[in-house]
Write a structure and sequence with these properties.
By secondary structure, the chain is mainly alpha-helical. The protein is built from 9 helices and no strands. The longest helix has 22 residues.
């Protein structure tokens, strides 16, 4: 994955207002991975935009950051109940720590504090967050050389088995742990 090209793509999607921050990160990285997620992934990412609900109703964790964590979950998260996925937490912490070191906080409200939401300055600030997170996640998943290559086939089978037609909810019953 070319982190610089992915950064540019995500930034353009956000700048053009085609997608919000979390959506642009998920869409761009999903495409770069060969689109293992359906278009429904954008629906899942939509609620994380603008700090999970907008500055007037939320303003919590930066949407770009949550989009990045969602994609780390796709690659390193568990795909079965009671499964093990130690890398997803380590990778998520790495991304969060990097974001805080770069920006001082993960709070959308604090990141844009004092900015008029419609101002070009605020837009470019969020464009930068969106592109930077996309590039950082791309860099984090490239050097998978320690045998921890994610098995997308297994994950896709799980997604297919637990995904219902549009508008339907599939209830998954956790399997009992072997004791």
């Amino acid at each position: 994955m070319n982190a610089g090209a992915l950064r540019t793509e995500a930034e353009q999607l956000y700048r053009s207002k085609a997608l919000d921050c979390s959506e642009a990160v998920v869409h761009t990285l999903n495409r770069a991975l060969g689109a293992p997620l359906s278009a429904d992934a954008l629906k899942m990412a939509s609620g994380f935009a603008v700090g999970m609900g907008g500055l007037d109703r939320g303003g919590c964790t930066c949407g770009a950051l949550t989009g990045g964590v969602m994609m780390l979950g796709l690659l390193y998260g568990r795909s079965t109940a009671f499964g093990s996925a130690p890398l997803v937490l380590a990778k998520s912490k790495e991304l969060r720590d990097w974001f805080v070191a770069e920006n001082g906080t993960t709070s959308c409200r604090a990141l844009v504090q004092g900015s008029d939401w419609s101002s070009p300055c605020r837009l470019e600030q969020c464009v930068r967050f969106t592109g930077a997170v996309t590039a950082k996640v791309a860099e984090m998943v490239q050097p998978i050389s320690d045998g921890a290559q994610p098995d997308l086939g297994e994950m896709l089978a799980f997604i297919s088995a637990t995904t219902a037609p549009a508008g339907k909810y599939v209830e998954s019953t956790p399997q009992a742990a072997n004791v």
